[in-house]
Amino acid sequence: MKEIKVAVAGNPNSGKSTLINAIAGTNLKVGNWPGVTVEKKTATLRIDGLTINLVDLPGTYSLSPYTQEEIIARDFLVKEKPDLIIDVVDSTNLERNLYLTIQLLELDIPVVIALNIYDEAKKKGYEIDIEKLEKLLGVKVIPTVATKKEGVKELIEVIKNFAQDRNFIIPKKLNYGDVENSINSVESVLRSQYPDLLDKYPSRWLTLKLLENDEIVLRETGIKADENFLKEAKTHFEKSHQEDMESVLADIRYGIAHGVTKDVLKEREGKKTDLTEKIDRVVLNRYIGIPIFLFSMWFLFKIAFDFSTPFSDWLDSVISGPLTKWTTVLLNAAKSPEWFVSLVTEGVIAGVGAVLVFIPVIAVMMFLITLLEGSGYMARVAFIMDRLMHSIGLHGKSFIPLLLGFGCNVPSIYATRVLETERDRKLTAMLVPLMSCGARLPVYAIFIGAFFAKNAPTVLWSLYVLGIFMAILLGLVLKKTLFKGFAPVFIMELPPYRVPLIRDLLIHTWQKLRHFVIKAGTYIFAVSVIMWFMLNTPYGVEKENSALGRVGKAISPVFEPLGFGTWEASSSLLAGLIAKEVVVSTMAQIYVTDNGQEGNSEEKEGTKDFLEDLKDIAISFFNAVVDAFQNLLAGFGIKSLQVEEDEEMTPLKSKLQEIFTPLNAYAFLAFVLLYWPCVVVGISMKQEFGSWKIYGQAILIHSVMAWLVAFLIYQGGKILGF
Ligand SMILES: Nc1nc2c(ncn2[C@@H]2O[C@H](COP(=O)(O)OP(=O)(O)OP(=O)(O)O)[C@@H](O)[C@H]2O)c(=O)[nH]1
Ligand SMILES: [Mg+2]
Q: Domain 180-267, CATH 1.10.287.1770 — does that match?
């Protein structure tokens, strides 16, 4: 069977991942902002006895060695020597995309251009002369609309033909004018003196990189920048152009890209302002841009809450009611020892259940965030935050990894790869854990349900905003201390607004959500078991005197000034160092099963039989669906909301109400938001930056900050009479 390795390269946001998904039916991540793919991923298509391995490279504007993605992309192209490159070109930005195409042609690898986003180009009135483009560059050009799978068949056909006959596309050398002489002389020196290098690297590419003083290539080859043959080839140009060779070559490439574009692109007259421009006039406005962003966030939380609450309540009633009851009945029937029944019901079901109950909130939230990512608004937020971000020595681009952190902080750490310098990346990574991730939602949701049910979206929103605010504040401090320096000015690219594909939306929502579900089934489960043992050693004592109780009591004085110096709160926070959901699962174990009141009331209902319970579950689910949609309509102001007078309180919530006040509950939430980044974040920081140092610093700084903020909230609130 034949096999062919195809690299898919192109500018950021040109639709590479979408195109591969269309070709191979994969689920690579797609989003409407530059920098979605940050590491290379492979997809495989088997067709007519041919195996096509497609490698999705991170998007790059150039193949210089400056950002992480550029390095990943070019390392692959140069070292792994793919048979063919599909260069995905955004037809609405022909010139800028061709700048990269020209560099790809330096690699001596056959290139096919997928002229993607062809639909939008046509809408804008662009006409591209495809035959001429093929002739000028010596490549195949196929117009495509990746989102609609248009042109995909033709593209596969080209790959198949190429696999049959490698001469189907012959790479063409573009002429770099008077630099060609220097290129030739350097190439011949390389050929005679460094023949091994030419086995490793494409010769023209190697020559050009040496002429450009490319740090990485110089280092890898051991050739010195001031070696005579290089110096000779460069001096002439650097003198006559008054620029270094790197700029001279960049100018040449830009010149070719510009020339080719002029030759093949016609813009029809009478272009009307499109929708994107109209929306941007409002949302990018320098005065109302940030308020609009804050309002959209608030609205997002409102929808998330309104829609998901009925489902959470339903899950809660199922888990704490029939599920616990029937498990107990079954275990008793099997003559399980008392401690085991307690482990299963009070440890596992209560612990894991407490987190599972909030899966609907997380799901809706992840869906809405994915929608935001897919629409193109995310890049706008980065843009409007640019000025504010500059004040902390970062540019708006850093705001994208931060926003991604609303889903989960871990991918955000990886997303810092879009930033140019190590300093920017580390500083941004340091701020990422301050973004409220999905794991914190269960904690927020349970407390908000108990204390702030009437203003739920606003209180939730305030926590997210607090996170952003603290990130900016911390950034200011770090810029003056640990991370001195300024961010380079960067031109932000704003993709047009797009309606995301439903398929992409659902897949990416699930990919975000899956993580939390798996976590609940694995280490929240494990931690719940451990916590149960700690709560029950020695067996039979009051919880307060258990191992966990005693540890909690020992550290509780630390939290005394913050208003929650109880052993229960302290030991939950301690357990939460592993993952923030664990705070809730531990509390559920500590509080709800306390003196078994709940068990009694359940037993009274215990006369109901299994079928009746199932019927109840089905009916209440149906009611939840109706409620959810009613809430949604009410949220959009289409239908007025009937305020539920006596909101039903779950046992855990009413227990919390006895122990916390709204004031120290809020201080507690702020503390949970800000303290100790979870272990998985730590591991990803280690992976990205090669040492535990950043995580160590983050633990220290964030925990101190969390303490101070909670202290200010609690003590300040007391003074203000809350
Ligand atoms: N209208 C239109 N939109 C497209 C087309 N191809 C992709 N898109 C959209 O363009 C956006 C970017 O797509 P991605 O596939 O994530 O782009 P990418 O090149 O992989 O981007 P990076 O990973 O950031 O380099 C998404 O919103 C896609 O839905 C197309 O042919 N037409
Ligand atoms: Mg991509």
A: yes
pTM, to two decimals: 0.79
Separation of alpha carbons 209 and 213, rounded Å? 6
* Both structure tokens of 702: 């964030």
Phi first, then psi: give them for residue 267, nearest 5 degrees.
-105, 125
End-to-end CA distance of the chain: 74
Q: What's the per-residue H, E or C state across 67-91? A: CHHHHHHHHHHHHCCCCEEEEEEEH
Distance between alpha carbon 84 and the CA centroid of its chain, in Å?
A: 30
Determine whether the shortest distance from the Cβ of 507 to ligand 1 is under 6 A.
Answer: no
What residues does each domain of the chain span?
Answer: 2-168, 180-267, 291-719
Task: Decide whether any atom of ligand 1 lies within 6 Å of the 21 Cβ.
Answer: no
pLDDT digits (tens, 9 = 90+) for 30-44: 888 887 888 888 999
Residue listed under structure tokens 């019901």: 345
User: Which residue in the block uniquely carries the two structure tokens 């450009």?
Assistant: 212
Backbone dihedral region for residue 335 (phi beyond 0: left; psi -120 to 50: alpha; all else: beta): left
- For helices 581-591 and 651-659, the axis angle rounded to 10 degrees is 90
CATH, domain 2-168, list 3.30.565.10, 3.60.40.10, 3.40.50.620, 3.40.50.300? 3.40.50.300
202 lines ligand 1 (CB under 6 A): no
Per DSSP, 376 falls in state T
Each residue of 494-504: pLDDT tens digit? 888 888 888 88
- Residue 30 CA: nearest ligand 1 atom is 16
